[in-house]
Design a protein that fits this description.
With 162 residues, this protein is mainly alpha-helical. Helices cover 43% and strands 8% of the residues. It has five helices and three strands. Strand 2 and strand 3 form a beta hairpin.
């Protein structure tokens, strides 16, 4: 059982880092005000989003993880950001865990499973609780540049903006 869990972690991290030869990351719909029309999300997008949810929102509860997932999806649908989930996550240092120099190890089985479930739900069309948020930060800090953005709410210990 432990070996299977290790393989799943390796597959999840590898799935975000590089697509399988026969799987392309599907661009999300860029339709204004409409969720992406994905019935069955592609595996690479799910894996990339789950990784980001795991590291950016692991301790924020169900609402907090959904909100972070929607920020990723909203960015992929926005003309301001790359057009796939994985490209959004790989974009510069937009997500702190990608630039902290610490190896990405999804070592908590339950948190990894919750992140995967949340990513699948968000990419399958779950309602956007953030109303289109594109940015978020921990409620414990006050980065000055967010004051120029419209605040849309606080979910799971993070503050979200458009």
């Amino acid at each position: 059982m432990r070996f299977t869990g290790i393989l799943a972690v390796c597959g999840l991290v590898a799935g975000c880092a590089q697509p399988p030869a026969d799987t392309e990351a599907a661009p999300l719909s860029r339709s204004e005000g409409r969720p992406a029309e994905l019935v069955e999300p592609n595996t690479r997008d799910v894996n990339c989003m789950a990784e980001a949810i795991y590291f950016e929102a692991r301790g924020t509860g169900a609402e907090g993880t959904r909100a972070v997932g929607h920020v990723i999806q909203n960015r992929a649908e926005s003309d301001e950001f790359p057009d796939t989930v994985c490209a959004v996550i790989d974009d510069k240092c937009q997500f702190s865990y990608r630039c902290d120099g610490v190896p990405e190890e999804l070592s908590h089985d339950e948190a990894r499973a919750r992140a995967l479930k949340t990513a699948q739900q968000v990419l399958s069309g779950a309602p956007d609780i953030t109303n289109g948020a594109l940015f978020f930060h921990s409620a414990g800090i006050e980065p000055g540049w967010f004051s120029t953005r419209k605040r849309v709410g606080k979910f799971g210990g993070n503050i979200f903006y458009r």
